[in-house]
Design goal:
about 55% helix; single chain; about 375 residues; alpha/beta; 15 helices
Length: about 375
């Protein structure tokens, strides 16, 4: 029996067993190919030698990690969903999979992390519950920051960033932009009832997703699966992405509405596969301590190689005792900082692309002017 190590899911009630589309794609592949497997939800990539999830193991050996490598391995084991495709169809499958992975991931990230209402009311609380304390204090925001950095590198900005860029043409607007960068996002959302952007359905990221969905809809047409009556790897990938757009309940669901209203055959396609996805056999889950442990392992190994010898008594080595106390103190400061901030990224991990503004003192009136509409 194979063991699949996958990011966990805050959407189990909706029948989804990961929040990562690649993990869902491999889960779907294993289900539809009738392989024997069990699922292990983890909160770090430490199980994988190349720090990549999903990862597939057999016994104590890690076989492969990452979608394509796992698919190639399963193919060699006789679980080949593409067995009935000819060379031309295989080329088409690869092209469509690349299109999905390139076009739909940005739309999904935007919808989850940059549509503020979705992040604050749904995504962040669910991810926090999934990872548990203390990882819940910073991982949801780290994920948002990584998503925001990726999208900004592609010219896609959040609501606050878009408003800031427009306003920066005047000195007063520049000051407002500076204030906004210092005010917790939750207060900015309260400015007009989370409706300041109305999900920006005209945002280019949705236009890009619509082109991809249109191409997929035409390819599927009225067929049961993309290449006929049997599922292939392409079907598992499309389901992996579209399921995360269709089934989680979000306050603003532009992508779901787009699929259901404009591409009903894709919605019906997902429903067909979703009905076949039985709850997987579950293996032991990684607890939060293991997740934290993988983060601090390197720091601890600076002072002692736990694999090669045991630690000497601290009474015999006062210097070692001081080092251990320093490590413990550093970890305490780290978690104290996280608790103080609520949700945050580890300092220094975000890319700073904008020009730094001069240091300013922010007063209560400054904050109220922005929250109440000073930016208009």
């Amino acid at each position: 029996m194979y063991s699949l190590y996958s990011w966990g899911s805050p959407f189990k009630a909706e029948g989804l067993y990961s929040f990562d589309p690649a993990c869902i794609s491999i889960q779907t592949y294993l289900q539809l190919s009738k392989a024997e497997w069990q699922l292990h939800n983890v909160s770090s990539t430490s199980v994988s030698p190349n720090n990549c999830l999903p990862a597939l193991t057999c016994g104590q050996a890690v076989i492969e990690s990452g979608f394509w490598r796992i698919v190639e391995f399963l193919k060699s084991e006789g679980y080949d969903l593409n067995a009935g495709l000819d060379e031309e169809q295989l080329s088409q499958s690869t092209a469509y999979i690349s299109l999905v992975q390139d076009s739909l991931v940005d739309a999904l990230l935007f919808s989850w992390y940059l549509v503020s209402e979705n992040f604050v009311e749904s995504i962040r609380p669910r991810l926090a519950k999934l990872f548990g304390f203390p990882l819940s204090l910073f991982i949801p925001t780290q994920l948002r920051d990584h998503a925001e950095h990726r999208l900004e590198s592609r010219g896609i900005h959040s609501v606050v960033a878009t408003e800031t860029n427009t306003a920066s043409e005047s000195n007063s607007s520049t000051n407002t932009a500076f204030l906004k960068s210092k005010i917790p996002r939750i207060y900015l959302l309260a400015k007009d009832g989370f409706k300041s952007h109305e999900d920006k359905s005209a945002n280019p990221v949705y236009a890009q997703a619509k082109k991809c969905l249109n191409a997929l809809s035409k390819k599927l047409d009225k067929k049961e699966y993309f290449f006929g009556s049997k599922p292939t790897a392409l079907d598992t990938v499309v389901y992996g992405y579209l399921s995360l757009m269709l089934y989680p309940d979000l306050p603003q669901s532009t992508l779901k509405s787009m699929i259901v209203e404009e591409f009903p055959n894709l919605s019906e396609f997902c429903n067909r596969i979703h009905a076949q996805m039985e709850p997987p056999s579950m293996g032991p889950e990684q607890n939060w301590a293991a997740g934290v442990g993988s983060m601090v392992k390197q720091s601890a190994l600076q002072f002692a190689s736990l694999r090669s010898y045991s630690l000497p008594s601290t009474q015999d080595d006062p210097e070692l005792a001081s080092k251990i106390i320093s490590v413990a103190g550093a970890l305490g400061v780290f978690f104290g900082y996280a608790i103080y901030k609520g949700i945050l990224s580890v300092p220094g991990t975000r890319s700073k692309t904008s020009t730094a503004l001069p240091s300013q003192v922010i007063t209560t009136n400054d904050i109220l002017s922005v929250v109440k509409g000073g930016s208009s």
